[in-house]
Amino acid sequence: MKTVESIAKSLNGKKIILRLDLNVPLNKQKITDTNRIDKVIPTLQFLINNKAKILILSHIGRPKGKVIKELSMKPICEYLENKLNQSIYLVKTDINNFREKDLFDNKKASILMLENLRFYSEEEKNNEEFAKILASFGDLYVNDAFSCSHRRHASIFSITKYLPSYAGIQLMAEITALRKITKDITRPITCIIGGSKISTKINVIKNLIYRFDNLIFVGGMANNILKNKNFQIGKSIFEQNCDHIVEDIFELSKKENCRIIYPIDVSVSKKIDGKGNVKKISEVQEDDLILDIGPDTVNMLCKTIEESRTVLWNGPAGYFENENFKKGSLEIARKIVEKNKKNEIYSVAGGGDTVAALNSFDLTKHFSFVSTAGGAFLEFLEGKELPGINALE
Distance between CA 271 and CA 280 in Å, rounded? Predict the structure, then answer.
């Protein structure tokens, strides 16, 4: 892929169509999590420093082709203005009726932002004419929205047919990080994987077993394994009819010499907002809820991390939102950070709940890379080709 950094000297005065993922959570049009916006600041600053004119394309939510006031890009526009100390003009005109091809004419700002792309049904339909209209507003196209690049949408895929197209700084950082845990691996490599549904991540797990030395199951996913091994899991969350999946995982891991690790003790309660009680997995009762891993499991996992040179973390170890059940996730994070600070490990964390946990511990910045990409992150780990990346290649 050609990168935007490789053409820095030719950006002066050029109109750059910049696709970002600014799909952040809003509450009454107030941003509640700015992570995705903050991550693209380096690309915006790079373009500003090289005197480019910028047209930002992005979306919020799922308006399904309808204009919904609550899903306007206005709060994001205002946040970026303060962050960059630059004026940003929000273009609210329906671009299907827009005849003026140079959007920057008579605008005081050198940064413009189109209103929510998903107000147009043509965006998600990957409409060629819509892509042509978007392309007509600029000289070059830059994709810095890795988290949208698993979508075959007009502003991600088809637009690349009509303009010279480049990868943004954040998109390249994401690909580089993920390649370090899937291709350019420093061993031993460990994956910590959680979440409630094992079926949604089975393809990721199978793809990683071929590459990883250790696969650690935590959270709701570990309950499926405990249940398959005939341990009582009480009222804990688990997925029905998954024994065959668990057995496939163990069979494949044995064949590929990948060690499977799961909890040997847990922290339980009778209710989700209760206090924790540590039990061996053989002591869990029918009315217990497993809400975190126990201290013996924490020690076992920390020992595995200590012996690892690369680690991928996707899924917290417990219900960290309750102070009583955050210890497992916190201790895992602390151990990874300890190794990171000594430059003894390359660490990647991804997934909404994992990122939320790290944010709550204020440890996000101490990981080698933290991905906010969601679906694209998982599809890359599955080994799938991403349309947005293929289009740039």
Answer: 18
